[in-house]
Specification:
Blueprint: E1 10-17, E2 29-30, E3 36-40, E4 43-48, E5 53-57, E6 64-69, E7 75-80, E8 87-91, E9 97-101, E10 109-114, E11 120-125, E12 132-136, E13 141-146, E14 153-158, E15 165-170, E16 173-180, E17 183-188, E18 200-205, E19 210-215, E20 220-224, E21 227-232, E22 240-246, E23 249-254, E24 258-262, E25 268-273, E26 286-292, E27 295-300, E28 305-309, E29 317-320, E30 328-333, E31 339-344, E32 348-353, E33 358-364, E34 369-374, E35 380-385, E36 389-394, E37 400-405, E38 411-416, E39 422-427, E40 432-436, E41 442-447, E42 454-459, E43 465-470, E44 475-479, E45 484-485, H1 489-492, E46 521-527, E47 532-537, E48 541-546, E49 557-560, E50 566-571, E51 577-582, E52 588-594, H2 596-601, H3 631-638, H4 650-656, H5 658-666, E53 676-683, E54 695-696, E55 702-706, E56 709-714, E57 719-723, E58 730-735, E59 741-757, E60 763-780, E61 786-791, E62 798-802, E63 807-812, E64 819-824, E65 831-836, E66 839-846, E67 849-854, E68 866-871, E69 877-882, E70 886-891, E71 894-900, E72 906-912, E73 915-920, E74 924-928, E75 935-940, ...
Antiparallel strand pairs: 1-52, 2-3, 3-4, 4-5, 6-7, 7-8, 8-9, 10-11, 11-12, 12-13, 14-15, 15-16, 16-17, 18-19, 19-20, 20-21, 22-23, 23-24, 24-25, 26-27, 27-28, 28-29, 30-31, 31-32, 32-33, 34-35, 35-36, 36-37, 38-39, 39-40, 40-41, 42-43, 43-44, 44-45, 46-47, 47-48, 48-49, 50-51, 51-52, 53-102, ...
Length: about 1450
Amino acid sequence: MADRSAPSCHLRLEWVYGYRGHQCRNNLYYTAAKEIVYFVAGVGVVYSPREHRQKFYLGHQDDIISLALHPERVLVATGQVGKEPYICVWDSYTVQTVSILKDVHTHGIACLAFDLDGQRLVSVGLDSKNTVCVWDWRKGKLLSMAPGHTDRIFDISWDLYQPNKLVSCGVKHIKFWSLCGNSLTPKRGVFGKTGDLQTILCLACARDEVTYSGALNGDIYVWKGINLVRTIQGAHAAGIFSMNACEEGFATGGRDGCVRLWDLNFKPITVIDLRETDQGYKGLSVRSVCWRGDHILVGTQDSEIFEIVVHERNKPFLIMQGHCEGELWALAVHPTKPLAMTGSDDRSVRIWSLIDHALIARCNMEEPIRCAAVSTDGIHLALGMKDGSFTVLRVRDMTEVVHIKDRKEAIHELKYSPDGNFLAVGSNDSSVDIYGVVQRYKKVGECIGSSSFITHMDWSSDSKYLQTNDGNGKRLFYRMPSGKEVTNKEELKGIQWASWTCVSGLEVNGIWPKYSDINDINSVDANFIGQVMVTADDYGIVKLFRYPCLRKGAKFKKYLGHSAHVTNVRWSHDHQWVVSIGGADHSVFQWKFVPDRKLKDSLHIAPQESLVDSNSDESDSDQSDVPELDSEIEQETQITYRRQVYKEDLPQLKEQCKEKRKSAASKRRERAPGNSIRLHFVHGYRGYDCRSNLFYTQTGEIVYHVAAVGVVYNRQQNTQRFYLGHDDDILCLAIHPLKDYVATGQVGRDSSIHIWDTETIKPLSVLKGYHQYGVCAVDFSADGKRLASVGIDDNHTIVLWDWKKGEKLSAVRGSKDKIFVVKINPYMPDKLITVGIKHMKFWRRAGGGLIGRKGCIGALGRTDTMMCAVYGWTEEMAFSGTSTGDVCIWRDVFLIKTVKAHDGPVFSMHALEKGFVTGGKDGVVALWDDTFERCLKTYAIKRAALAPGSKGLLLEDNPSIRAISLGHGHILVGTKNGEILEVDKSGPITLLVQGHMEGEVWGLATHPHLPICATVSDDKTLRIWDLSPSHCMLAVRKLKKGGRCCCFSPDGKALAVGLNDGSFLIVNADTLEDLVSFQHRKDVISEIRFSPGAGKYLAVASCDNFVDIYNVMSSKRVGICKGASSYITHMDWDIRGKLLQVNTGAKEQLFFEAPRGKKQTIPSLEVEKIGWASWTSVLGSCCEGIWPIIGEVTDVTASCLTSDSKVLATGDDFGFVKLFRYPAKGKFGKFKRYVAHSTHVTNVRWTYDDSLLVTVGGADTSLMLWTYEVEGHRDSRQCDSEESDLDSEEDGGYDSDVTRENEINYTIKALSTNIRPMFGIKPHLQQKEPTLDERQGVVRPPVSRALPQPEKLQTNNVGKKKRPIEDLILELVFGYRGKDCRNNVHYLNDGADVIYHTASVGILYNVATGSQSFYQEHNDDILCLTVNQHPKFTNIVATGQETQQICQLQLLLFMSGMQ
């Protein structure tokens, strides 16, 4: 059975044995429902002692290490470790996520605490600064963050009696924080003489600024404000790990195994010593206590949870046990009873009842245990030890039968033979020993074929053969009991295996990913009856595969919960359960096996949701049964939107060219031209890789995008207006529900989304900072307040925005593969769907995160690639279009039906009030009723249906449809070929806009005396465009190959076209029919030119470095220009038609004489004197100034001179169109520049009368027309050009004072060099007595104005008498900061006071008394000051200082009363 699909049965987590006591504290609480909440491995557990039942929260993907309970005791916050750790706030009733807080911490989250009303949550990170963060957790929004301490922080708590105050404690410190605005400011606790400075492990806040804290030596320190006022000595005999405050008082738990209860004034009530109770033992250490009413919960270091009833305090009840710290490897199941045996490095072996979910026996051994096996009769339990010995115990009373040590290295695997006669023992010294059970475990054989340690073994059913796996991934066979290796393939053929736990072998090939290191699967166990097997790996994942599983990269279902390595996994004897054990998390998980037939009954139960689909994530390999990807989609997924250089990089690049700038700035440079251009019309629409990007606005205009331009098209007047805020390709567009605003997303290093008004064409909001490389999908919510966007980074990040505020609400990694569409649920703005390559996901917002669930397909098939999606008439219904032409109908997350809608992919879908409209690759628009039961009408997009008013010609029948929108009685359709059509409901189709199809456009020629131009593109079409106000395509001809250049003859009757295969055609300019064609070259024809006048000669330049000259009349080649060392890029004739100027890719400027093509050398002064018929060259002294400073990075691709020879237009690789004065002599000329194309502008041409500039963009396929505006008649609208690359000093330099201030560098003075000049012998060279510090090797930090480094204090000097230091009080400050600040003196209180600043002090000067009062919270120079003018906020002042990180401008608001 080579089925590579995932099995249809699944596993459900039923019980977790264990509790995380080690390295954690304060992680065990009662919820409001009297359930107990704690965590183990990566699972949050809610345990009901009444029903003996567990519920699980599975939203984490790594070890949980911190937990906090909300004051209402229903919600729980948990924090995990990991590279990008996050905090989940979840509901303990439903175990569903409420909010996710992410993107701030690194390494892990060490502590969490809710404030009194539960609105805010504080968290502490495990990063080097132990960052403290305060969150508005419901919104998922960070309110404030600050570095916590240089050493670990162990506990943090809100002061429940003072708002905005927190206390944190840790290694040798305690800090008292106040939250003011968004700034967290700490004050260190002063230990003084009252107690030793030591590590504080836990704390609790009380009334009147009193804080109680538990110290490492077992004392309790009592703080008032920030001062230590008293200590309660010997509260515990060792460190106090946990302190819990409740209505009755406080409970503390310590390393001494005692729990103490204290009243509200911290007077002792009682002590409970757990070591002395029945279940107690020496070394018991308490990590967590929780006191509620008359119950106390205690969590211990060794993974036990005790419940104590106060009036029977000497009889604690043990409600949960697990293995202690140390790796857990050994697992065996009883052959006839529902029991599991585990053994660990904690040297204990334990027997668990899978029915009662309880530990029923435990026995401590001498050595760490590495493997276990139960004999076939269930009487003996064999344990393999780390020291190379093994022990056999009787199961019923755990007494020892035998202990044998034949090996030096760890025993990693042992198994009893099915007939019960032998025990095979595999060790790390590469051998397997066979022992006879009946002969009191006498050694009877040895297998020595392996070259590495033994990892797995299986017996054959007849006990005659043994197969082994070793660390090298080798699979070997042995005859039993002798241990002779079997190499004969025939002998092995018919063997039936009693069990299958080996990881290598044909039957389990499929468990390995296609590319994998052999050691990352630790354990396998096959269920022969159910034809499934389960695996355990190094990534914390338990997987379910079909068995046998022959082909690599099989599909599976995966289950998360374990945090790190899952070391072993086994089926129970009756295959009802799977038991898995975690190495480092030393927990035991029991999973219920749900076979297929039961699955159908449980379909109405929603799957347990989690952040990572733990439910059923199909594996990553390509499915064998997946239909071929449609060619169009395939093509689209391969487009990369990465650029070598982004426009955002320009400032940096210019910065790197500083030297060039300096030399340029010193020379006089030509001014920019006075005339300018304005974008007038754009031919083109981006359909080939975008969808649903075409809409009617409120006023009936049409909005869409092409290149970097948002276009609003008025179809009555055939005019366009442009949004030019983007600077690179726009990839998506969505319209606001009121149809007045539009959101567009672009390509960019840090790509932006612009929301703009279609009436005023002004931006309302720009969103940046979260998407790398580009934004491929956007959608507004139904109320228009939110916006969802998807990026084209590797994770296709999904972000939900409050776009008016510019605030990110939530974000999540979407998918590894491309996502095409995002849609927000119109009824519930917290829900959304995304569709993409083999992807259909339903998301709901949870604070700063989004939680996704895959669409459940059930028995209806497999996940197809989805191309479009819409929501239906209720909040549960969603519809998606697939790449195979089906429409899928979803209720909640379940697929309930599919309907065949199109041949080929369904690219676009639009929901109407009653029904839907779809469009597909088949070129058909279909109208449907509201349940997709009936197709009401179809429209085929055909040439025959084109109405007479069309602005162009349809290139082919049934073009692929990429966008559909309805409104104003019409259906608007956008096609892959770059056409926008309006379909009347009665049938006729009007073509409104069109451009070239996918492929680069290079060829451009303007007609010598008509407003017409021709373009030729890699899309294999030649097109003629009308540039007069009718703006339409007049003619089109398909070519056998793409083309890169074209040129009209001087009389305008013929048109020459150069093709990419080295041939060229001359066609009739009206009918586009062939007149003549030639092929003399193999490489692309890059430029083609008729000689002026009668057009006697035609020069044809190719990429193989030659220019051929043809006599047009005789149709013969008459000359060849040789001598270029690279491909030809540009050509121009002189007026006489005798001289040809040529530019090459090697930046050579060459001259050839026509017609023979003889090479000429002409000095540059002479070149300027020659009259040229056209100038499209980019080299030479006349156009030296057009090359930008960063000329190495970007090429000027095209230029064209106006007929009066005054203005040179250029296009470059950055998508800029620029105008220069001609001649542009001298380097780095000044210019006006215009952005509308996205990347390369491949060609620019003036029309015959210079009224328009025509430009084409390479990959953006657009043809743009710009009107040329002469200096005089320019209206006063703002010029959309940037004048120049660099602003040189000649623009009226600075005043000397301004220059000086501009150059001041505000580094922190205290940290820079000494101000006072020094003479004489430097102190460190003088002979001197070493100080006490030096003798003891203490290094003091340099003097610094920054926060003091934490001192490693010598704690012994407490008793020494010192003279008390008197306090200094600031009385008077002379001076005022005027040298480099401005507007920093103000009157307050109607002129009675003056406020100003100097140094780091804000000063309030009373005019009448002449006295000063001071604001001294700053710790470095104040640079600015302002007074709030609003009558509501009288006397409020803000001052800003310079700090180490200048970016963090600390604005401290202070009342001018100086409090």
